[in-house]
Recover the amino acids of this structure.
């Protein structure tokens, strides 16, 4: 009886987490509907890692806008893409895919999803300069995200595909690992408190690496 109760409680908790994630996605999308993008804007597009960044202050620029949504994956970004592309922003910095990795997709499956998104952005806003950022390293020693356990190799393989997609489409690929990874290829422990998301020091390391790309024409 106790086991059955715990199973029901676990299933309910999972359902509530999913519902909360969906509600948050809807809330953020509804907010972005009220905040139109313009052709002078620089957009950061992605999931929770982007969502958590105060880029206007980190970069000291008012033309930077955050379009990250916690728990988002490539299909979610595709679904809300028009909010960004219809304004034809000057630049887009795309960071997406780690949640897709956690869903158990192979590097080839991830690349197929990713390339469709990239081509859709280019088709809808061809004058936008698109930057493809590597998926950040993870650190499973924190033992927080079970769905990412053993996925280090997939992340590396996926990044190789992203780099190739950038090269084949004439886009800029930005490797974030020199700023964030330790010698073993894990996220540096001083830059994260859960093995996935960034601390303030992590955001500073990330944005300092990106700063030259924001300044270039």
């Amino acid at each position: 009886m106790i086991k059955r109760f715990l199973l029901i409680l676990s299933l309910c908790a999972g359902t509530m987490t999913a519902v909360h994630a969906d509600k948050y996605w809807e809330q953020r999308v509804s907010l972005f509907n009220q905040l139109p993008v313009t052709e002078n804007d620089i957009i950061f597009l992605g999931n929770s890692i982007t969502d958590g960044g105060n880029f206007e202050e980190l970069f000291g620029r008012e033309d930077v806008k955050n379009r990250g949504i916690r728990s988002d994956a490539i299909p979610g970004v595709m679904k809300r893409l028009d909010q960004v592309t219809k304004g034809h922003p000057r630049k887009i910095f795309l960071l997406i895919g780690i949640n897709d990795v956690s869903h158990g997709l192979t590097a080839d499956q991830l690349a197929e999803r990713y390339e469709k998104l990239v081509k859709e952005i280019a088709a809808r806003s061809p004058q936008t300069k698109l930057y493809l950022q590597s998926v950040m390293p993870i650190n499973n020693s924190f033992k927080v995200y079970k769905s990412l356990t053993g996925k280090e190799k997939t992340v590396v393989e996926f990044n190789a595909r992203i780099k190739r997609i950038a090269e084949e489409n004439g886009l800029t690929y930005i490797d974030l690992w020199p700023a964030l990874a330790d010698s073993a290829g894990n996220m540096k422990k001083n830059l994260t408190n859960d093995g996935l998301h960034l601390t303030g020091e992590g955001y500073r390391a990330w944005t300092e690496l990106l700063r030259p790309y924001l300044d270039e024409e």
Observations:
- Residues 2-17 have pLDDT under 50 and may be disordered.
